[in-house]
Amino acid sequence: MSISNWEEAKKRSKYHFSTSIIDTTNIQSLGRFRGDWKKDLEFALGCVEKINWGNRRAAADRPNDDIESEEYDLIKAGANPKMTIYRGLTDFSKCPTIQKMIDYFEFKTVKGKLHVQFTGEMLNMHVDKLYDIDEDPNNVLRIMIMLDDYEPGQFMMYGNELFDRWQSGDIHYFDWKNIPHATANASNKPRPMLVLTGVMSDRTKELISTQSDHYQV
Question: How far apart are CA 188 and CA 183, in angstroms?
Fold first, then answer.
């Protein structure tokens, strides 16, 4: 019998997993980027590739030994285990403004990923497993940068706290080790987001210690 990725995640997490507790502090704002990345985004949207649970780590060059348990949760729920959960891009050589966003936080090492959901695409509730990136998982940070304004029908959920009504350039992060999260798009427009996953330098820690509403790229 297959092991449930979701149930195993619960064992690792310190999250309460209670539907009676209302979460209000799971989303940590880091301010907003200012600038014009419309041309970069238009180009990138034409290059994204379909991502499912089985191939999602390939672009990051990280092995995935948990595919069976991850797909098991979808099968058990009656969903297609090979369904597209989002569309991705990791090569930003022709997207200089987006590359500036990746470089801004001065991680020791970092992977940038364009995470786009088209209408009907959904990434089911899960807890991240980034423990293979550094010996100390407390040094690993995942940052989300919204690349377009919110549209009704687009949402992200951290624990049971809903994140919506964002503006283009908004930056946030969360406790990836413990907070379950999910994303979906029921709007009529793609939802593009840049995800940075990296090992923090002292400069990274300094930059995230205060919010800024005027990062210019």
Answer: 15
Model pTM score = 0.95
Q: How many CB atoms lie within 10 A of CB 132?
A: 11
> Which of the residues in the chain have pLDDT under 50?
none
Nearest-angstrom CA–CA distance, 192 and 190: 6
- Specify the DSSP class assigned to residue 210: S
Q: What is d(CA 193, CA 197) in angstroms, rounded to the nearest whole number?
A: 13
Tokens 């238009």 identify what position?
A: 42
pLDDT digits (tens, 9 = 90+) for 100-154: 999 999 999 999 999 999 999 999 999 999 999 999 999 999 999 999 999 999 9
Three-state helix/strand/coil letters over 17-40: CCCCCCCCCCCEEEEEEECCCHHH
Residue 133 and residue 23: Cα distance in Å, rounded?
A: 28
Structure tokens at 199: 């090992």
